[in-house]
Amino acid sequence: MLLMKRLTITLTHNLCIRQEYVMTPPIRARILWIYGTILFLFLGASAAVTPLYPLYHAQWHASLPMLQAAFAVYALTLLLALLCLGSLSDYLGRRPVIWLAIAVETVAMLQFAVAANIGDVICGRALQGLATGIATSALSAGLQDAHRERGGLISGMVPMGSMAALALGSAILVRFAPDPLNFVFWLLTVGMVMSAGVVFAIPETVSRIPGALASLRPRIHVPLAARSAMRRIAPANIAVWALAGLLLSLGPAIARIASHDNGGVLLGGAVVAVVMAPALVAMIVHLAGPGTLLLRRGAVAVLAGLPLVLVGLHIVSLTVFLVGAAIAGAGLGLTVQGALRTIVPLAQSHERAGLAASYFVMSYLAFSAPAFLAGFAVRACGLRATTDAYVALLLILTALTLRGLGRDGTIDACPSPAR
């Protein structure tokens, strides 16, 4: 009986892999466009809240610990979703899991749209983190089902472009649109409802297999073939996502000091855009090239940009701060591109959601945990001292990473045919 069950699972896996080969180019293109757009909405929506924090503080008198709680609960539920539900689409299929994520995200957007206090926002952020965690692994795996190379590129580039666009767009709506606390979330709700319908226009890319309930156990699942590469890209990846956490959490506060408090409501969105837009440009410019080379160039860009961030803070120069943030943002894009190029080809179709979830767990932990701790350090030590210590640690980690990459130049994955 056990032998028959294993044979059934093996045959189903083989059917999943074969299904990828028979997809026609138009269907592949449609999947890439639709899943890429939905991923854009999910990850952009997470950044759309950032410009609203000053308004929550001004209109609802939300304290810094409460605003930190809104940041922390999003990261916590996202990580729990990745740990428990990250592999679910490998068993149930991509589309059912994506529909589940869209449903939860729609409820979260409605929660934001009718929020009357910071407690409502925290509840919305908890739901948003859960939905985003469910969606990111399923959508990333679906993109790679359609085309392994292009899908990996889109999975890496969409977070940068979406966070830049929606953070800045949200800031503009806050400044000029009616009902500044809620309007952007009504728009996102409409976008989510439309996304649910569009998913019907594409076929399922993997077949359902047994084991869905067992996959809900919290775990990190890195395929055996990808474990060595994942360990080697981890230091560089952790460094740049911790950098993103610094610039997206403390960045607006640093920018307000550097601008002598003249930035207004647009400043928070502008800081996110200044970090993420160069990251996206760097990824587009480096569509080709070995992963190791991109990791090295990313580390060099981080080492060049971070000191300028500190200089901008200490000499009170917004221009210097933004230039440093942009250079460091380019380093973020190069490193993410190099990391994904290294690990993506090493997973089979039934392992892709698990690998994507593991990568995002590592990235979001690095993004959220140091930034959350830094928020408490600001109250105890002040913004300048906290930023100095944070940047010094990042510079040390990045320098050690660059040294390690120079010593071992063999971490690139073996090339495999794109599917």
From TrEMBL:
Keywords: Cell membrane, Membrane, Transmembrane, Transmembrane helix, Transport. Its main location: membrane. It comes from the Bacteria. GO terms for cellular component: plasma membrane. It is a multi-pass membrane protein. Coiled coil: none annotated. GO terms for molecular function: transmembrane transporter activity. The chain crosses the membrane at residues 32-53, 65-85, 97-119, 155-177, 183-202, 238-258, 264-287, 299-316, 322-344, 356-377, 389-406. The keyword Lipid biosynthesis does not apply. It is found in: Cell membrane. It holds the Pfam family MFS_1. This is MFS transporter. The lineage of its organism: Bacteria, Pseudomonadati, Pseudomonadota, Alphaproteobacteria, Acetobacterales.
